[in-house]
Fold:
Amino acid sequence: MSDGTPADLFFDAAIGLLQRVRDEEAEAITAAGALLADTVAAGGRLFAFGAGHSSLAAQDVVYRAGGLALMNLLAVPGVVGVDVTPATLGSALERVDGLAGAVLDTSPVRAGDTLVIISLSGRNALPVEMALGARARGLKVIGVTSVAYAAETSSRHASGTFLKDHCDIVLDSKIAVGDAELTLDTIPAPFAPASTVVTTALLQAVMATTAATLADRGIEPPLLRSGNVDGGHEWNGRVMTQYGDRIFYRR
Structure:
């Protein structure tokens, strides 16, 4: 590790990744924003799914001040975060065949909707089957993943494929295999993961693109405001009333 404090080096690494994503994924971000805007304009619903720490980025775009009111979390029990006990159970569930299909069958998703699937490695059965099952049901799929894993690891799905192989649009987070940006001679393992920072920024860039795309088409984007600003609750109440049939986190 070169000169600089570990904090400085982590910030430098994260900023470098954000710059790469901004420059190299610009076309995919634009396409993803257009797809979400198309879905909203056509009366479709929007869903986001991630397992483990990838769920943090999914949760970040749901019921969020400044965000799209129509983003719904597609939750899989036991893998939404690290609150399940033991936390290792969540990792094990990601490898269970058939779980994605059971969740999709009991969820409100339908043809014409769009599902954003976040999985850093994209190699486990759950995200692969989620993408396969969603597309089979007539949904569009946006995948957020590190494409490097497909080149440097093996799939854990029976098909031998990765999440990136079953998406309409792929957003590559550029995260290196192992998700650790720093090394020190005094520490035996690499450390300091940046995937949450980058993936969250990627998705917020897509959300911003979606809002602007809708506005360009003469459609007011269904945005939420902070409940901590005057008039925020009233604003959100109107939005949720108008789009109540497409918002599932209130039910």
User: Anything to note?
Assistant: The longest helix spans residues 195-216. The chain has a mean pLDDT of 94. DSSP finds nine helices and seven strands in the chain.
